[in-house]
Design a protein that fits this description.
Layout: H1 2-32, H2 34-42, H3 47-87, E1 89-91, E2 97-101, E3 104-108, E4 120-124, H4 135-141, E5 142-151, E6 167-171, E7 176-179, E8 182-188, E9 204-210, E10 213-217, H5 225-228, E11 234-238, H6 247-257, E12 261-265, H7 276-283, E13 289-290
Parallel strand pairs: 3-4, 4-5, 5-6, 10-11, 11-12, 12-13
Antiparallel strand pairs: 1-2, 2-3, 7-8, 8-9, 9-10
Helix pairs in contact: 6-7
Length: 296
Amino acid sequence: MKGMKYLYLTALVIICVCGCGRNKAEKGAVKTGPEITVEEESGPGSEDAVQAEDAVKAEDAVQAGDAAGTEDEPEAENAEEETDMADSIEVFTQSSIRIRNDIGTIYIDPFQMMEEPRDADFVFITHEHYDHYSPEDIKKVAGEETVFVIPESMKNKVGEISDLISRAEWVKPGEAYETEGLQYETVPAYNTIKPFHPKSAAWVGYVLKLNGKRIYIAGDTDATKEAEAVKCDIALVPIGGTYTMDAKKAAALINEISPETAIPTHYGSIVGKQEDEDTFAGNVKEPVKVECKIHF
């Protein structure tokens, strides 16, 4: 009986020892099995995974930079366009203006021209006074194909250049036009109290649409309600006084219509002094930029 009990206890010990060994072996297999090995070789913390993640981040950064650069391009183009547009405007004596543009070479009220380029694609006349309608100077700039834009009220007063006018647009105040691809508007130009430029004469200023910009050439005018309603990016206004606004009143008009750039005209020769441009610039408020283009 004692022998049987001894054999039973011995068998039980052997079974326990074998079972523990098998459990330990299985646990070791879990730690070193192929699934765990694969995870250790290519998991989130491995060297290959880190490099791949860095590459993705670098590509995202490049794409973000390209997108940012693309967004900035239109603003840069607009800034360059604005600069080129202002640079393309020249002011000679009085209100004699030339604008060179993709659509052509445009003169407004050519007067006392030193050269005879005869390169005008367009000649705009604001009114009939000799320093704005000068047949002698028109003949210096006009060619055979020049298009004339003239107030309708002057139709019977341009006999001296009738041989040059083969193509003309006769305009009225307060209208919109398109001539040979050039879009523009007319703005009434007159004195509110002075007698020199009566409203009944139907003389005009112009707003030219060039390169997406609106350029206001005021002509001989005071700060009228029509002038105060103009929407423009660049404004050329008379500042010499006597027959038009003086420098301070012209500055007040500019502050009202708030263009990007203001260019003074009609001073320093027949009326007004060269110093008027300083008075004008000193009274124009930021952010309007003042450019004085008349050379003395």
